[in-house]
Protein backbone atom coordinates (compact mmCIF):
# COMPACT_ATOMS: atom_id res chain seq x y z
CA UNK A 1 0.00 0.00 0.00
CA UNK A 2 2.89 2.37 0.75
CA UNK A 3 4.21 1.81 -2.77
CA UNK A 4 0.85 2.78 -4.29
CA UNK A 5 0.62 5.84 -2.04
CA UNK A 6 4.13 6.94 -3.01
CA UNK A 7 3.35 6.48 -6.70
CA UNK A 8 0.18 8.55 -6.35
CA UNK A 9 2.08 11.29 -4.55
CA UNK A 10 4.78 11.39 -7.25
CA UNK A 11 2.24 11.72 -10.02
CA UNK A 12 0.23 14.29 -8.11
CA UNK A 13 3.29 16.44 -7.45
CA UNK A 14 4.41 16.26 -11.08
CA UNK A 15 0.92 17.22 -12.24
CA UNK A 16 0.64 20.13 -9.82
CA UNK A 17 4.05 21.72 -10.49
CA UNK A 18 4.10 23.71 -13.78
CA UNK A 19 7.62 22.80 -14.93
CA UNK A 20 9.17 24.27 -18.09
CA UNK A 21 11.41 22.71 -20.79
CA UNK A 22 14.36 24.54 -19.25
CA UNK A 23 13.54 23.36 -15.71
CA UNK A 24 15.15 19.91 -15.69
CA UNK A 25 17.80 18.06 -17.73
CA UNK A 26 16.74 16.93 -21.19
CA UNK A 27 17.14 13.24 -20.29
CA UNK A 28 14.40 13.59 -17.66
CA UNK A 29 11.86 15.56 -19.71
CA UNK A 30 10.04 12.45 -20.91
CA UNK A 31 9.85 10.91 -17.43
CA UNK A 32 8.41 14.10 -15.96
CA UNK A 33 5.96 14.48 -18.85
CA UNK A 34 4.51 10.99 -18.38
CA UNK A 35 3.89 11.54 -14.67
CA UNK A 36 2.51 15.03 -15.18
CA UNK A 37 0.29 14.03 -18.11
CA UNK A 38 -1.22 11.08 -16.23
CA UNK A 39 -1.95 13.27 -13.20
CA UNK A 40 -3.59 16.03 -15.21
CA UNK A 41 -5.50 13.79 -17.60
CA UNK A 42 -6.90 11.50 -14.87
CA UNK A 43 -7.01 14.00 -12.00
CA UNK A 44 -10.61 13.32 -10.98
CA UNK A 45 -10.47 9.50 -10.74
CA UNK A 46 -6.98 9.66 -9.24
CA UNK A 47 -8.36 11.96 -6.54
CA UNK A 48 -10.88 9.26 -5.64
CA UNK A 49 -8.15 6.60 -5.75
CA UNK A 50 -5.91 8.62 -3.42
CA UNK A 51 -8.79 9.09 -0.96
CA UNK A 52 -9.44 5.34 -1.01
CA UNK A 53 -5.77 4.53 -0.39
CA UNK A 54 -5.66 7.06 2.46
CA UNK A 55 -8.76 5.48 4.02
CA UNK A 56 -7.33 1.95 3.78
CA UNK A 57 -4.01 3.14 5.20
CA UNK A 58 -5.81 4.86 8.10
CA UNK A 59 -7.80 1.71 8.81
CA UNK A 60 -4.62 -0.37 8.85
CA UNK A 61 -2.76 2.10 11.06
CA UNK A 62 -0.29 2.79 8.24
CA UNK A 63 0.89 6.28 9.10
CA UNK A 64 3.33 6.51 6.19
CA UNK A 65 0.58 5.55 3.75
CA UNK A 66 -1.73 8.23 5.12
CA UNK A 67 1.02 10.86 5.00
CA UNK A 68 1.57 10.14 1.31
CA UNK A 69 -1.96 9.41 0.06
CA UNK A 70 -3.70 12.31 1.79
CA UNK A 71 -1.43 15.01 0.29
CA UNK A 72 -1.76 13.25 -3.07
CA UNK A 73 -5.55 13.59 -2.82
CA UNK A 74 -5.20 17.30 -2.07
CA UNK A 75 -2.89 17.79 -5.05
CA UNK A 76 -5.17 15.84 -7.41
CA UNK A 77 -8.08 18.02 -6.26
CA UNK A 78 -5.99 21.10 -7.07
CA UNK A 79 -5.09 19.74 -10.50
CA UNK A 80 -8.73 18.90 -11.30
CA UNK A 81 -9.84 22.40 -10.29
CA UNK A 82 -7.07 23.87 -12.44
CA UNK A 83 -8.31 21.77 -15.38
CA UNK A 84 -11.76 23.24 -14.84
CA UNK A 85 -10.26 26.73 -14.79
CA UNK A 86 -8.51 26.00 -18.11
CA UNK A 87 -11.85 24.94 -19.58
CA UNK A 88 -13.43 28.21 -18.46
CA UNK A 89 -10.56 30.23 -19.92
CA UNK A 90 -10.98 28.52 -23.28
CA UNK A 91 -14.74 29.06 -23.29
CA UNK A 92 -14.39 32.74 -22.37
CA UNK A 93 -11.75 33.25 -25.06
CA UNK A 94 -14.36 32.23 -27.64
CA UNK A 95 -17.16 34.24 -26.05
CA UNK A 96 -18.98 31.20 -24.70
CA UNK A 97 -20.67 30.79 -21.34
CA UNK A 98 -17.98 29.53 -18.98
CA UNK A 99 -20.08 27.05 -16.97
CA UNK A 100 -18.36 23.67 -16.79
CA UNK A 101 -20.50 20.72 -15.62
CA UNK A 102 -19.44 18.91 -12.46
CA UNK A 103 -19.16 15.68 -14.48
CA UNK A 104 -16.46 17.06 -16.83
CA UNK A 105 -13.30 14.99 -16.42
CA UNK A 106 -14.84 12.36 -14.16
CA UNK A 107 -14.42 9.69 -16.88
CA UNK A 108 -11.31 10.67 -18.91
CA UNK A 109 -11.10 7.50 -21.02
CA UNK A 110 -12.25 8.28 -24.55
CA UNK A 111 -14.86 5.94 -25.93
CA UNK A 112 -16.19 5.62 -29.46
CA UNK A 113 -19.08 7.96 -30.13
CA UNK A 114 -22.13 6.16 -31.55
CA UNK A 115 -23.07 9.33 -33.42
CA UNK A 116 -20.08 9.06 -35.77
CA UNK A 117 -18.74 6.57 -38.30
CA UNK A 118 -15.32 6.03 -39.85
CA UNK A 119 -14.16 5.32 -43.39
CA UNK A 120 -10.70 3.88 -42.77
CA UNK A 121 -7.38 3.80 -44.63
CA UNK A 122 -8.03 5.87 -47.71
CA UNK A 123 -4.81 6.32 -49.68
CA UNK A 124 -3.78 9.87 -50.55
CA UNK A 125 -0.17 9.23 -51.66
CA UNK A 126 2.47 6.70 -52.67
CA UNK A 127 4.04 5.85 -49.29
CA UNK A 128 1.91 3.00 -48.03
CA UNK A 129 0.39 3.14 -44.57
CA UNK A 130 2.08 6.47 -43.88
CA UNK A 131 0.06 8.04 -46.70
CA UNK A 132 -3.37 6.97 -45.54
CA UNK A 133 -6.15 8.85 -43.83
CA UNK A 134 -9.47 8.10 -42.16
CA UNK A 135 -12.65 10.08 -42.69
CA UNK A 136 -14.81 10.49 -39.58
CA UNK A 137 -18.39 11.48 -40.41
CA UNK A 138 -21.70 11.92 -38.63
CA UNK A 139 -23.94 8.85 -38.78
CA UNK A 140 -26.82 11.17 -39.66
CA UNK A 141 -25.39 13.60 -42.23
CA UNK A 142 -26.55 17.21 -42.30
CA UNK A 143 -28.76 18.52 -45.09
CA UNK A 144 -25.93 20.31 -46.91
CA UNK A 145 -22.20 19.83 -47.56
CA UNK A 146 -20.13 19.46 -44.41
CA UNK A 147 -17.21 21.67 -43.41
CA UNK A 148 -13.96 19.69 -43.25
CA UNK A 149 -11.20 19.56 -40.65
CA UNK A 150 -7.85 17.94 -41.45
CA UNK A 151 -6.24 16.57 -38.28
CA UNK A 152 -2.47 15.96 -38.07
CA UNK A 153 -1.22 13.87 -35.16
CA UNK A 154 1.81 14.70 -33.02
CA UNK A 155 4.71 12.53 -31.90
CA UNK A 156 7.95 14.52 -32.26
CA UNK A 157 7.91 13.82 -36.05
CA UNK A 158 9.14 10.27 -35.31
CA UNK A 159 6.10 8.43 -33.93
CA UNK A 160 2.33 8.59 -33.79
CA UNK A 161 -0.59 7.36 -35.83
CA UNK A 162 -4.04 8.45 -36.85
CA UNK A 163 -6.72 7.32 -34.38
CA UNK A 164 -4.44 7.98 -31.39
CA UNK A 165 -4.87 11.68 -30.68
CA UNK A 166 -7.53 14.41 -30.53
CA UNK A 167 -10.31 11.84 -30.41
CA UNK A 168 -12.48 14.01 -28.13
CA UNK A 169 -12.29 16.88 -30.64
CA UNK A 170 -12.70 14.66 -33.71
CA UNK A 171 -15.77 12.91 -32.29
CA UNK A 172 -17.29 16.18 -31.05
CA UNK A 173 -16.97 17.86 -34.43
CA UNK A 174 -18.17 14.86 -36.44
CA UNK A 175 -21.17 14.50 -34.15
CA UNK A 176 -22.00 18.15 -34.89
CA UNK A 177 -21.96 17.91 -38.65
CA UNK A 178 -18.27 18.06 -39.61
CA UNK A 179 -16.18 15.77 -41.76
CA UNK A 180 -12.77 15.10 -40.18
CA UNK A 181 -9.80 13.68 -42.08
CA UNK A 182 -7.34 12.03 -39.65
CA UNK A 183 -3.99 11.82 -41.42
CA UNK A 184 -0.87 9.66 -41.27
CA UNK A 185 2.41 11.00 -42.69
CA UNK A 186 6.00 9.81 -43.08
CA UNK A 187 8.16 9.85 -39.95
CA UNK A 188 11.81 10.16 -39.00
CA UNK A 189 14.46 8.97 -38.81
CA UNK A 190 13.74 7.02 -41.99
CA UNK A 191 12.35 10.17 -43.65
CA UNK A 192 13.48 13.73 -43.02
CA UNK A 193 12.01 17.17 -43.46
CA UNK A 194 10.44 18.34 -45.67
CA UNK A 195 8.86 14.90 -46.32
CA UNK A 196 6.38 15.39 -43.47
CA UNK A 197 5.26 18.77 -44.75
CA UNK A 198 4.93 17.43 -48.30
CA UNK A 199 2.73 14.60 -47.05
CA UNK A 200 0.30 16.75 -45.11
CA UNK A 201 0.03 19.19 -48.02
CA UNK A 202 -0.72 16.26 -50.31
CA UNK A 203 -3.36 15.08 -47.83
CA UNK A 204 -5.02 18.51 -47.89
CA UNK A 205 -4.96 18.48 -51.69
CA UNK A 206 -6.60 15.01 -51.64
CA UNK A 207 -9.27 16.21 -49.22
CA UNK A 208 -10.08 19.24 -51.35
CA UNK A 209 -10.33 17.00 -54.42
CA UNK A 210 -12.40 14.21 -52.87
CA UNK A 211 -14.38 15.80 -50.03
CA UNK A 212 -17.51 16.24 -52.12
CA UNK A 213 -17.63 12.49 -52.83
CA UNK A 214 -18.28 11.94 -49.11
CA UNK A 215 -20.53 14.94 -48.48
CA UNK A 216 -17.83 17.47 -47.59
CA UNK A 217 -17.39 21.02 -48.83
CA UNK A 218 -13.97 21.48 -50.50
CA UNK A 219 -14.29 25.25 -50.12
CA UNK A 220 -14.45 24.99 -46.30
CA UNK A 221 -11.33 23.13 -45.18
CA UNK A 222 -9.49 23.87 -41.92
CA UNK A 223 -6.49 22.19 -40.30
CA UNK A 224 -5.41 21.34 -36.77
CA UNK A 225 -2.66 19.34 -35.07
CA UNK A 226 -0.86 18.87 -31.78
CA UNK A 227 2.85 19.26 -30.98
CA UNK A 228 4.62 18.08 -34.16
CA UNK A 229 1.18 18.17 -35.74
CA UNK A 230 0.80 21.77 -34.57
CA UNK A 231 3.98 22.63 -36.43
CA UNK A 232 2.72 20.84 -39.53
CA UNK A 233 -0.71 22.50 -39.31
CA UNK A 234 1.00 25.90 -39.21
CA UNK A 235 3.14 24.94 -42.20
CA UNK A 236 0.03 23.94 -44.16
CA UNK A 237 -1.55 27.30 -43.38
CA UNK A 238 1.52 29.32 -44.37
CA UNK A 239 3.35 27.28 -47.03
CA UNK A 240 0.44 25.82 -49.00
CA UNK A 241 1.58 27.47 -52.24
CA UNK A 242 5.32 26.75 -52.05
CA UNK A 243 6.05 24.56 -55.12
CA UNK A 244 9.28 23.28 -53.54
CA UNK A 245 7.16 21.49 -50.92
CA UNK A 246 4.71 20.04 -53.48
CA UNK A 247 6.73 17.91 -55.90
CA UNK A 248 4.41 16.45 -58.52
CA UNK A 249 1.36 18.38 -57.37
CA UNK A 250 2.61 21.95 -57.60
CA UNK A 251 -0.70 23.30 -58.98
CA UNK A 252 -2.94 21.60 -56.42
CA UNK A 253 -4.89 23.84 -54.06
CA UNK A 254 -3.66 23.07 -50.54
CA UNK A 255 -4.99 26.20 -48.85
CA UNK A 256 -7.14 26.22 -45.72
CA UNK A 257 -9.54 28.83 -44.40
CA UNK A 258 -8.51 28.48 -40.72
CA UNK A 259 -5.92 26.69 -38.60
CA UNK A 260 -5.73 25.53 -34.98
CA UNK A 261 -2.09 24.68 -34.15
CA UNK A 262 -1.78 23.30 -30.62
CA UNK A 263 1.33 23.48 -28.42
CA UNK A 264 3.62 23.28 -31.45
CA UNK A 265 7.17 24.11 -32.50
CA UNK A 266 7.25 27.23 -34.64
CA UNK A 267 10.98 28.01 -34.72
CA UNK A 268 13.07 24.91 -35.45
CA UNK A 269 16.22 26.78 -34.46
CA UNK A 270 14.87 28.04 -31.10
CA UNK A 271 16.59 31.33 -31.84
CA UNK A 272 15.16 32.96 -28.71
CA UNK A 273 16.61 30.03 -26.69
CA UNK A 274 13.34 29.49 -24.86
CA UNK A 275 14.42 25.91 -24.12
CA UNK A 276 17.16 27.32 -21.89
CA UNK A 277 19.77 24.79 -20.86
CA UNK A 278 18.13 22.19 -23.08
CA UNK A 279 18.49 24.32 -26.24
CA UNK A 280 21.47 22.38 -27.61
CA UNK A 281 20.04 18.98 -26.66
CA UNK A 282 16.78 19.66 -28.50
CA UNK A 283 18.66 20.78 -31.62
CA UNK A 284 20.76 17.60 -31.49
CA UNK A 285 17.60 15.51 -31.19
CA UNK A 286 16.09 17.23 -34.23
CA UNK A 287 19.27 16.77 -36.30
CA UNK A 288 19.52 13.10 -35.37
CA UNK A 289 15.87 12.11 -35.77
CA UNK A 290 13.90 14.17 -38.30
CA UNK A 291 15.74 17.22 -39.64
CA UNK A 292 18.34 16.96 -42.45
CA UNK A 293 21.54 17.16 -40.42
CA UNK A 294 23.01 20.29 -38.85
CA UNK A 295 21.07 23.58 -38.95
CA UNK A 296 20.96 25.05 -42.44
CA UNK A 297 18.52 26.78 -44.77
CA UNK A 298 16.07 23.87 -44.48
CA UNK A 299 15.69 24.53 -40.76
CA UNK A 300 14.66 28.09 -41.55
CA UNK A 301 12.30 26.94 -44.30
CA UNK A 302 10.64 24.45 -41.92
CA UNK A 303 10.02 27.13 -39.28
CA UNK A 304 6.49 28.61 -39.45
CA UNK A 305 7.89 31.76 -37.83
CA UNK A 306 9.83 32.30 -41.07
CA UNK A 307 6.66 31.82 -43.14
CA UNK A 308 4.44 34.51 -41.62
CA UNK A 309 2.51 36.29 -44.36
CA UNK A 310 -0.12 39.01 -44.58
CA UNK A 311 -2.74 36.68 -46.08
CA UNK A 312 -2.37 33.96 -43.44
CA UNK A 313 -5.70 32.41 -42.44
CA UNK A 314 -7.13 33.05 -38.96
CA UNK A 315 -5.45 30.88 -36.35
CA UNK A 316 -6.23 29.76 -32.82
CA UNK A 317 -3.15 28.73 -30.85
CA UNK A 318 -3.43 27.01 -27.46
CA UNK A 319 -0.52 26.14 -25.20
CA UNK A 320 -0.24 25.21 -21.53
CA UNK A 321 2.21 27.14 -19.37
CA UNK A 322 3.13 23.85 -17.67
CA UNK A 323 4.28 22.25 -20.94
CA UNK A 324 7.51 20.42 -20.11
CA UNK A 325 8.36 19.55 -23.75
CA UNK A 326 7.86 22.74 -25.78
CA UNK A 327 8.04 26.31 -24.44
CA UNK A 328 4.64 28.00 -24.32
CA UNK A 329 6.23 31.40 -25.00
CA UNK A 330 6.92 30.27 -28.56
CA UNK A 331 3.20 30.00 -29.30
CA UNK A 332 2.63 33.51 -27.96
CA UNK A 333 5.46 34.93 -30.07
CA UNK A 334 4.19 33.17 -33.19
CA UNK A 335 0.64 34.40 -32.63
CA UNK A 336 1.90 37.96 -32.14
CA UNK A 337 3.63 37.84 -35.54
CA UNK A 338 0.51 36.65 -37.37
CA UNK A 339 -2.07 39.06 -38.83
CA UNK A 340 -5.12 37.32 -37.32
CA UNK A 341 -4.41 34.99 -34.43
CA UNK A 342 -5.70 34.28 -30.94
CA UNK A 343 -3.36 32.63 -28.44
CA UNK A 344 -4.76 31.13 -25.24
CA UNK A 345 -2.25 30.27 -22.50
CA UNK A 346 -3.57 27.68 -20.05
CA UNK A 347 -1.97 28.12 -16.60
CA UNK A 348 -0.14 25.00 -15.47
CA UNK A 349 -1.50 22.75 -18.23
CA UNK A 350 0.76 20.03 -19.66
CA UNK A 351 1.73 18.98 -23.17
CA UNK A 352 -0.88 16.79 -24.92
CA UNK A 353 -3.57 17.75 -22.42
CA UNK A 354 -6.35 17.17 -25.00
CA UNK A 355 -5.78 13.43 -25.64
CA UNK A 356 -7.87 12.29 -22.66
CA UNK A 357 -11.32 13.62 -21.79
CA UNK A 358 -10.29 15.72 -18.79
CA UNK A 359 -12.19 18.81 -17.63
CA UNK A 360 -9.74 20.94 -19.65
CA UNK A 361 -10.55 18.91 -22.75
CA UNK A 362 -14.28 19.47 -22.19
CA UNK A 363 -13.71 23.20 -22.65
CA UNK A 364 -11.14 22.67 -25.38
CA UNK A 365 -13.41 20.85 -27.81
CA UNK A 366 -16.17 23.43 -27.44
CA UNK A 367 -13.83 26.39 -27.81
CA UNK A 368 -12.18 24.94 -30.93
CA UNK A 369 -15.56 24.17 -32.44
CA UNK A 370 -16.71 27.75 -31.77
CA UNK A 371 -13.58 29.15 -33.43
CA UNK A 372 -13.97 26.91 -36.46
CA UNK A 373 -17.68 27.63 -36.79
CA UNK A 374 -16.91 31.34 -36.72
CA UNK A 375 -14.18 31.27 -39.35
CA UNK A 376 -15.17 28.28 -41.50
CA UNK A 377 -18.95 28.40 -41.39
CA UNK A 378 -19.42 32.09 -40.59
From TrEMBL:
Positions of transmembrane segments: 31-56, 63-81
Domain BD-FAE-like stretches: 133-338
Domain of life: Bacteria
GO MF annotations in UniProt: hydrolase activity
Keywords assigned by UniProt, alphabetized: Hydrolase, Membrane, Transmembrane, Transmembrane helix
Name of this protein: Alpha/beta hydrolase
Amino acid sequence: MDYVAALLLWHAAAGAIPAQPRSIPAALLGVWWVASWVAQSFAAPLLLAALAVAAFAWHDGDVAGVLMAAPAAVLFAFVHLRNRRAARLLLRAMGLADRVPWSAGMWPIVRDDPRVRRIADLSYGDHGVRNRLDLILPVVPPAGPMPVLVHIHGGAWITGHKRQQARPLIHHLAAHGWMVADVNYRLGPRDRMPAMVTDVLRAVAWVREHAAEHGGDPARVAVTGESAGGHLAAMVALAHDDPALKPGFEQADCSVVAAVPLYGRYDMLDRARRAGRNHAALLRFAAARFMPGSPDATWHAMSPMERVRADAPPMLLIHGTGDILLPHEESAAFAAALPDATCVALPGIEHAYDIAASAATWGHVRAVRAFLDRHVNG
